[in-house]
Design brief:
The protein has 207 residues and is mainly alpha-helical. It has eleven helices and no strands. Helix 3 packs antiparallel against helix 4.
C-alpha cells in the first residue's frame, strides 16, 4: 500500500479503474495492457503497481464497481415497490440488467482466470460485493414468494446468477459470429437483454 491518505489511495484506484473502463469501451480485455491503462492516468505508469499488481485485479475492481452500481439501483427499485408479483420481480431484474451492459460484458469474460490472477484480498472485496447482490435478490424473494423454501430460493439464485454470464454473448454477437452461425445453419433469433432475461426469469419463477 502506498504512503498517503486513504482519500488519495481511493482517488488513485478510482482513476485507474476509470481508465480501464474507458479503454474497455473500444478494446477487448486481451488487447488492453497495464501500459495502456497507465498511459491513460495522470501519474506514472509504474505507480499502478502500488494499487494493483495485475491487469486482472483492475478488471476485477471494475466488475466490483459495476456490481455496486447494480446493487444500488436494484435496492432502490425494490424498496420503492414494496408489493410486487413474481412477474413484476422478473420485470424489475430484467429492466435493471438491461441498463448494465458493461457488467454483463465483464461477466462474459473468463472470470475464473481473472480471479486466479488476483490477490486474495482483492478477490474478497469483489466477493463481498457479489454477496450483496445475492442478498438483495434473496430479500426480494423473501418478500414476494414467502412460500418458497430455502432450497428453492437457493436453486433460483444459483440458476439466475450463472445465467447472467451468458446474456451478453447471446444479445451482442459480432458480425463474424453472425456470419459463422449463418454458415453453420444456426437458427439464431436476436433478443434484447430485457427480453432474454425476462423470459428466463419468468420460467425460473414459474410465472
Amino acid at each position: 500500500m502506498p504512503k498517503g491518505s486513504i482519500e488519495l489511495t481511493s482517488a488513485r484506484e478510482n482513476e485507474i479503474i476509470d481508465a480501464c473502463a474507458a479503454l474497455y469501451e473500444t478494446m477487448s480485455f486481451k488487447e488492453i495492457t497495464i501500459k495502456d491503462i497507465g498511459n491513460a492516468t495522470s501519474f506514472a505508469r509504474t505507480s499502478i503497481y502500488n494499487y494493483f499488481q495485475t491487469k486482472e485485479e483492475i478488471f476485477l475492481a471494475l466488475l466490483k464497481r459495476e456490481y455496486t452500481l447494480w446493487n444500488m439501483e436494484l435496492a432502490k427499485a425494490s424498496d420503492t415497490k414494496t408489493d410486487m408479483s413474481r412477474e413484476e420481480l422478473a420485470a424489475l431484474l430484467a429492466r435493471t440488467l438491461s441498463k448494465k451492459e458493461r457488467l454483463l460484458r465483464l461477466l462474459s469474460m473468463n472470470l475464473f482466470a481473472i480471479e486466479e490472477n488476483s490477490r486474495a484480498d482483492k478477490l474478497t472485496e469483489f466477493k463481498t460485493e457479489f454477496k450483496k447482490s445475492l442478498d438483495i435478490v434473496n430479500d426480494c424473494l423473501n418478500k414476494i414468494t414467502p412460500e418458497m423454501t430455502n432450497e428453492e430460493k437457493h436453486a433460483f439464485l444459483y440458476s439466475f446468477f450463472p445465467f447472467m454470464h451468458g446474456i451478453y454473448p447471446y444479445t451482442a454477437p459480432t458480425q463474424k459470429q453472425l456470419y459463422a452461425m449463418q454458415q453453420a445453419g444456426v437458427d439464431f433469433q436476436p433478443l434484447s437483454i430485457y427480453k432474454m432475461t425476462y423470459a428466463t426469469l419468468k420460467k425460473l419463477l414459474s410465472v
